[in-house]
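Escalation from tier 1.

The customer reports that the assembly of two entities below gives different C-alpha cells on two consecutive runs. Tier 1 could not reproduce it. I'm attaching the input and our single run for tier 2 to review.
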Amino acid sequence: MPQGSEQGDAAIERLREIVDAAEAEISKQMARLASSKGKLESSKEAIDNNRAVASQVRRAIERLASATRAVGLAGAKAATKAEASRLGLTLDPEAQTIIDTVVEDRLKEISAVWGDAADEVSRAARVAITTSGSLETLVLDVQSKLRGSQAQAQSAVDSMAMAAGRQVAVIQAEDAASELGEDVAYVYGGPADRITRPFCREHLTSLTKQVYTLAALDALDAGAGQPGPVSAYMGGFNCRHNLSPISLVEAKRAGYTVIR
Amino acid sequence: MTLKRTTPTPPRQRFNASKVAAFIASLAIGHIRTRTGEGLDVEDAPFAMYSTEYAETRAELGRNTGFVDLLMSGGMLNSVRVVDSSGGADLASVTIGVGTGTSPRVRPPSKTRRRGGSRTGSRGPAHNLLARWHNEGTGRNPKRKWFGVSAKGSAMLERETKRVLAKFLENK
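Tier 1 run:
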C-alpha cells in the first residue's frame, strides 16, 4: 500500500520535526535549570513550553491516527474495486449486488482494525507524555505501532479480498445449483504444513475425507479474534485455504462424508 | 366420480443452457483447485519438483516442500473464477480464468522467529501472469500445467452434465 506508506512516512517525519523542536526546547530548559540552580518549578515559561510540546505531539498523533484510518478505508476500497474488476462484474449484475453486500461487511471490519490501531498509537502517546518518557522513545514507539498497524491493515485488506472472492464463488455455486435443484458441498482444500492453523487442519478434506455444505461451514467458528463467516475467511486472517464446489452426488462417489 | 389432486405438482423446470453451464463451471473450478492442491497437473501427473533453493526457502517459510501444490499465499488458486459468460436458454458459454489481483511477497523469518515469514512490503506478480508462467514454464522454471481440466475431471464433468440433463428429460 504505497499511498499508506507515504502518508505514514509524512506523519512520522512531522513527528520527528516536533521531536527536534522539543529537544531544542528541552536543551534551553536545561540551560535555564542550570542557571536557576535546579528550581525548575519557578520557571513558568519552561512549564508552559512543556505543555505546548505535549499539545503539539497530541495534535500530531491525532493527525497520524486520522491518516491511518483514511488509508485503511482507501486501501479496502481499492482492493474491492480490483476484486470487482477481476470478477468481470459487467457481465453479471447480480454478482455486483453480492459483492457490494459482502464487501460492506468487510469494510466495517477494516475500519475496526484501523480504529484499534489508532487507539494503540494514541495510547502510546498518552503513556509517553504522562510518564515523562523521552520523546525519541515516543516516536520510535509510534513508528513501531504504525508499522505494525500498516501490516495489520494490509493483512486485513488482503484477507478481505480473499474472503470476498471465496464468498462470491460460493454464492455463484449455490445459486447455480439451486436453479437446477442440485445440492453442492465444498472441499476444504489447501496445504497441511507447519504453519497451518489447527482449525484448518481439523477441517481439511485431504485429512478428514469430509466435505461441508455451506450451512455446515458457517456453523463453524474459527476461534476468538478471527473474522467470519468460515465460508469467506476460512481459518481467519491470511488463511491460504480454499473452497472447491463439488456436487453431492460426486462427493459421495468420491467417498467423502458430507457434513451438513 | 371426480378425482381431486391432493399433492401439488412440482413446477416443471424448463431447460436452460446458461444455468447448466454455470453449474458445470462451478464444478470445473472445484476440480482445478482440488486437483492442483493434490499436486497433480492437467495430465493427472505430479508436478515437477521445486528447485532445491526454492524448496529451502519454502521450508524456512513453513510451507510444503515434499510435493508441489503451487501454493504460497493461496491467492492464485483462490482467484480462479468465471470471467465471462454468454448465451441463453439453448446455447451457453462460460469462460473460467485467473484473477488479475496480486498477493504479498513474503520472506523467510529471522532466526529469532520460530514460524511463518514476514511480508516484504512489495507485491508478487498478477495471479493470471503467475498462472501463465506456471502453465507454460519460463527459462528458469519448468512447465507445471495446472490450469485446465484433466481426463478424470473431464469425465466427472461429463457425468454431471449427463445427470443434470437426464433430470430435465425425466421431468419433460
